[in-house]
């Protein structure tokens, strides 16, 4: 049954006729404006909650207008309450499933065009008001003539065009960054960007998403606490996807879950263990597990919805992740560091002592309890040395693994701020240890799990472990005496940045003054050249001031 309603407010990017240059200008202007706002607030020391909320609203409004690429970035940030202020979290959360819908007329036209029949011939009933709308499409509830309750996912118009433009725009920005800023060269941004857009282009192909859903459903066949909707291929195309209707409570809605007597700790464990299975056993995982893509059923089942952004773990990476995971459980610092180096997450250095000390500190202090940032005061000097030498880097193959884990971590912290990742993963380890396991990979995991449990009940004498580790470090030549004043180094770095900023400020002022004088003479052409140099020097000044501000912020954190 169809009922008409008025067209909803449309987004600018859906109907604008962009050129690559116009899109580049829009994205660059947005980036510059936001950075300028933050710098202005910093200079005026206006960092009140009201001001942050104002900036966050402006950010969300402009991300919506910029379109799906930037909405996806905002969605990822909205789960990181430990990284960005609460005001931004609250506003960015609107991007998860509250993106304004497009008009019903467009949705119906898309369905009829793709499926080749009138809507009333396809469905016994079809709800006009969408259940939810997102950056790539919106979902309508319907009923088949067989009586099955379904949801119909309809793609937004113009997605491929805007993706193609953003593909060029972001590529151009990355080339500029890697060419003029040496600090970006080691991160292989080109490969990360290619993988990011490859997933975005896959996400607008609903046939591909449907196949992903079926594969994911097969991987969890027999797991009654994990629900995956069935795909109805007769009513699906590249731009239309019809799925089984599985209602649930949004996974991060703590109040609603508690009102329905749902055990939050169990939901956290279920989410963590399901992702460990995806990563370590299946090698096929949902790379965008934001709260809009997960829900909790009436009986406490975890429901997965969106399968457009699935990713695969290469065999060798999966082997290394298994090694790292169980090395963390056994607090084996050397094995953790060696595998992170092999995976490319840590760059090998002549002196790995600061890195190993930090990893050992993390394993000792945070393996079985929540992270306390204040505890890092004990190793502030090592943190400074580590980030100064920049041993950490992010290879493309790990980008989406870390993104999904940090997003999942953000969801878990929304349910329980005191939760611990490794503690929540214990059921996964125990189940593996008790299972027989078939296949070389599962057998290897089971062997590792049994080793962890065996080590737990047969701990070696602490003094013996310490002496053995000390002996190994002496043999490797890791024990070194270092006499240096880290505080002085940090102060000298700030002084150096301050002097550079002063020089650029003087050059900018001198050239502007020269240009102003030349404007009153016959040498007006030279005045415009001076104005150009003034703009260039002002950019250098801005970069230097931002670097100085960031350095001061890092130093203050280390000194707390």
TrEMBL record:
Stored InterPro entries: ABC1_dom, Kinase-like_dom_sf, UbiB_kinase
Taxonomy, superkingdom: Bacteria
Keyword Transmembrane helix: yes
Chain ranges passing through the membrane: 502-520, 526-550
Keyword list, A-Z: Membrane, Transmembrane, Transmembrane helix
Domain (ABC1 atypical kinase-like) ranges: 94-338
Xref: PANTHER family: CHAPERONE-ACTIVITY OF BC1 COMPLEX CABC1 -RELATED (PTHR10566), PROTEIN ACTIVITY OF BC1 COMPLEX KINASE 7, CHLOROPLASTIC (PTHR10566:SF113)
Family (UniProt): Belongs to the protein kinase superfamily. ADCK protein kinase family.
Protein name per Swiss-Prot or TrEMBL: ABC1-like protein
Species: Crocosphaera chwakensis CCY0110
């Amino acid at each position: 049954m169809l009922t008409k309603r008025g067209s909803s407010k449309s987004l600018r990017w859906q109907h604008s006729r962009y050129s690559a240059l116009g899109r580049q200008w829009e994205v660059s202007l947005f980036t510059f404006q936001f950075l300028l706002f933050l710098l202005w607030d910093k200079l005026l020391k206006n960092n009140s909650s009201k001001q942050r909320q104002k900036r966050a609203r402006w950010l969300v409004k402009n991300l919506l207008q910029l379109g799906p690429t930037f909405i996806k970035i905002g969605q990822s940030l909205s789960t990181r309450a430990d990284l960005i202020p609460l005001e931004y979290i609250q506003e960015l959360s609107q991007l998860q499933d509250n993106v304004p819908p497009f008009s019903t007329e467009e949705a119906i036209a898309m369905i009829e065009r793709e499926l080749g029949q009138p809507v009333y011939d396809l469905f016994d009933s079809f709800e006009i008001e969408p259940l939810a709308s997102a950056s790539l499409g919106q979902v309508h509830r319907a009923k088949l003539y067989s009586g099955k309750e379904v949801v119909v996912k309809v793609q937004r118009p113009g997605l491929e065009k805007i993706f193609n433009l953003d593909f060029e725009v972001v590529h151009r920005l990355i080339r500029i960054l890697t060419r003029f800023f040496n600090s970006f060269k080691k991160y292989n941004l080109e490969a990360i960007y290619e993988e990011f857009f490859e997933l975005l282009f896959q996400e607008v192909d609903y046939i591909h998403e449907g196949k992903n859903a079926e594969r994911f459903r097969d991987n969890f066949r027999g797991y009654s606490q994990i629900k995956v909707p069935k795909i109805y291929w007769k009513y699906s195309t590249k731009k239309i996807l019809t799925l089984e209707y599985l209602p649930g409570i949004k996974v991060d809605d703590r109040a609603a879950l508690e009102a329905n007597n749902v055990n939050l700790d169990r939901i956290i464990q279920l989410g963590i263990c399901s992702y460990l299975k995806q990563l370590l056993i299946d090698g096929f995982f949902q790379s965008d597990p934001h709260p809009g893509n997960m829900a909790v059923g009436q009986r406490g089942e975890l429901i997965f919805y969106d399968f457009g952004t699935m990713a695969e773990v290469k065999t060798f990476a999966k082997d290394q992740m298994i090694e790292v995971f169980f090395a963390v459980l056994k607090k084996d610092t050397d094995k953790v560091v060696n595998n992170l180096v092999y995976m490319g997450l840590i760059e090998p250095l002549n002196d790995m002592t600061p890195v190993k000390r930090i990893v050992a500190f993390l394993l000792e202090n945070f393996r079985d309890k929540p992270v306390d940032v204040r505890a890092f005061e004990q190793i502030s000097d090592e943190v400074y040395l580590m980030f100064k030498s920049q041993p950490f880097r992010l290879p493309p193959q790990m980008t989406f693994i870390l993104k999904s884990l940090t997003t999942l971590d953000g969801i878990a912290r929304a349910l329980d701020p005191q939760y611990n990742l490794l503690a929540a993963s214990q059921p996964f380890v125990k189940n593996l240890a008790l299972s027989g396991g078939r296949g070389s990979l599962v057998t290897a995991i089971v062997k590792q799990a049994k080793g962890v449990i065996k080590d737990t009940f047969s701990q070696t004498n602490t003094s013996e472990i310490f002496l053995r580790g000390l002996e190994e470090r002496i043999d490797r030549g890791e024990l070194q005496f270092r006499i240096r004043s880290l505080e002085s180094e940090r102060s000298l770095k700030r002084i150096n940045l301050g002097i550079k900023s002063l020089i650029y400020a003087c050059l900018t002022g001198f050239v502007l003054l020269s240009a102003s004088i030349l404007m009153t003479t016959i040498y007006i052409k030279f005045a415009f050249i001076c104005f150009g140099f003034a703009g260039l020097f002002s950019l250098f000044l801005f970069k230097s001031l931002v670097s100085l501000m960031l350095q001061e912020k890092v130093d203050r954190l280390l000194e707390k």
